[in-house]
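Sequence only, no structure available. Ideas?
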Amino acid sequence: FWLVACLARMGRTRKALSIFKDLLGYANHVGLYSEEINPDTLEFMGNFPQAFSHMGLIMAAFELDNALDGK
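Reply:
I predicted one. C-alpha cells follow.
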C-alpha cells in the first residue's frame, strides 16, 4: 500500500488506482490482510491479521482520495 500512497502523492493517480484496486483483491473473505503475501502462491505469510497492513490501506486510500480531489 505504501507504493500506492507514494504514486498518488507524485500525481500518478492512474497507476496508483490500478495497483490499489489489485491490492484490495488480496484480502481474505472478511477483508483482512497478513503481514506479507507470497507472490508465487498468494498465500498469507507472517502475522495475521497485521495492523500495519491495514493502516497502510487507510493511508493509501487517504492519499489517493486527496490526489484525485486535486488537494
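The CA atoms of residues 4 and 16 lie 5 Å apart.
Hope that gets you unstuck.
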